[in-house]
Amino acid sequence: MIIGALGPEGSYSEKAVQIWILRHRLDSVGIQYFADIEDAFLAVIQKKSDLSIVPIENSIEGSVGVTLDLLHENGVEIVGEIVVKIEHCLLSKGGPEKIKVILSHPQGLAQCRHFLKKYFPEAELRSTGSTSHAARLAGEFEEMAAIASPEAAECYRLKVLLPNIQDRKQNYTRFIALRAAGKNTAEQVFEQVLCDTEEKTNRPENSSHSAFKTSIIVYLEKDRPGALYEILGAFAKNKINLTRIESRPSKKELGDYHFYIDFEGHISDAIIKETLKDIKTKTDTLKILGSYPAFKA
Ligand SMILES: O=C(O)C(=O)C[C@]1(C(=O)O)C=C[C@@H](O)C=C1
Fold first, then answer.
1. Residue 173 annotated among the catalytic residues of the structure
2. What ipTM was predicted for this assembly?
3. Which of 41, 120, 175, 190 is the catalytic position?
4. Are 101 and 124 in contact (CB under 8 A)?
5. Which residue is catalytic, options 67, 173, 214, 283?
6. pTM of the predicted structure, to 2 decimals
7. Among the CATH numbers 3.40.718.10, 2.40.10.170, 3.90.1150.10, 3.40.190.10, which is that of 89-162?
8. Domain 183-293 falls in which CATH fold?
């Protein structure tokens, strides 16, 4: 089995893959590293990986926009989530006095904004494809430092000049595990529900509602008063707990959005089916991204 992730070695994405491998007790897994999130994501469609793990949101910086857009644009299924604690360090080959350039993934730079402004106001900030890519470069040039993990420091033989430099101690990134949409995806199960035929899912028996999450994208073509309220009302009426709601520009015009909604429950639960059927009548597009086990720390 090949799992795709953002590389090179030492990225937080690799950490997420390792957690996935441990929790699923997988052996004989190869990690395929990609230069950016888009390539890692699309690898499942291009059959370069069986599963890909990509970041979707961070507790300090919010959504990873490219992942949200790709979920809308492509036929993939979310099969799981992984939450990784992010502890950024300032890494370099030499001492702090030599640092002229600080490199990291844009998320890494943004999560350490206060630190950078306070201690390195003169440094040039440069973004890289990943935190580990930044560490690899810092290993080559003394005047460059990287914001990356302690594991990246080990990988590229860098000194940890300062640990835990993110603006808040509590810093977590949520990743999703994807596979290409195939047979028995949540979307197809729902299509069957709409035709009132018997559906089959890979949901384990006897699992509680909150043990699972379902992710959907909703698009309301014609902006009308109360449209979003009606959708949220359908969840409230059936006492379904939303875990996230996020809007993302549809890119058609200013002020036009897709809504990404995560909620507790599995697509094969009767109440979820009923709620989604109801929502389908209120929206122009309803895309079901998947039902998957909620991450437990
Ligand atoms: O650059 C990495 O190491 C990544 O895995 C990417 C990523 C992200 O895109 O959010 C993952 C976790 C951290 O929030 C910073 C960067």
1. yes
2. 0.97
3. 175
4. yes
5. 173
6. 0.91
7. 3.40.190.10
8. Alpha-Beta Plaits (3.30.70)
